[in-house]
């Protein structure tokens, strides 16, 4: 149980892989994309 073990978190970190023990951290959408700065209000 350690760096060489494929099934442990430490082993996943050592190999640089992801799985059940070490899921990928999903990036949160940035504030700029929510507000959408480049779109302007169109007056009628």
TrEMBL record:
Record has Ribonucleoprotein as a keyword: yes
Biased composition (Basic residues): 1-13
InterPro entries with a match to the protein in the record: Ribosomal_bTHX, Ribosomal_bTHX/bTHXc/bTHXm
GO-annotated cellular components: ribonucleoprotein complex; ribosome
Region Disordered, annotated ranges: 1-44
Domain of life per record: Bacteria
This protein's UniProt keywords: Ribonucleoprotein, Ribosomal protein
NCBIfam families per record: ribo_THX (TIGR04560)
Annotated family: Belongs to the bacterial ribosomal protein bTHX family.
Protein name per the record: 30S ribosomal protein THX
């Amino acid at each position: 149980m350690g760096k060489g073990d494929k099934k442990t978190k430490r082993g996943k970190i050592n190999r640089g892989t992801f799985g059940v023990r070490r899921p990928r951290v999903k990036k949160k959408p940035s504030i700029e994309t929510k507000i959408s700065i480049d779109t302007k209000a169109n007056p009628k």
